[in-house]
Amino acid sequence: MNQQPENHRAARTPVPLRSMMTDYGLWLALLAAVPVLALLGFWQTPNWGFPGTTVLLWGVLLYPILEELVFRGLIQGWLLKKIHWALGPLSGANLLTSVLFAAAHLLHQSPLLAASIFIPSLVFGWLRERHGRLAGCMLVHGGYNAGFLWVL
Known about the structure:
Layout: H1 17-21, H2 24-31, H3 33-43, H4 53-82, E1 86-87, E2 90-91, H5 92-104, H6 111-116, H7 118-131, H8 135-151
Antiparallel strand pairs: 1-2
């Protein structure tokens, strides 16, 4: 039986931006970073200095936009049309995209840090499928990166 799970979002019509901005899930995803960043701050000595304009521009604006276009827009969008299984609320497309996203971070980060990116990636993919657009993923991704740069 090759039926699509209820949470399969391949054909979902994008929600209006106004509706997306009032979605509790989007704001909970942003707030979820606070305790994680606090733990990182305790685990590693925080660098409370200003990271620099170039680092902020790339890390908070450009990387989230480019990565979300490639991973959630192209790869997850394509996988949503091909894969019709899910693990609870997470689609197979989201899970596979998140594995690829974490693996891509091995190019510039330690294996432990790259693996830790898997969970935020699931959040980005969930937002993409929930809203049918990339704006929420980009916003939350930029927020996570801003916090990460601020703390570390």
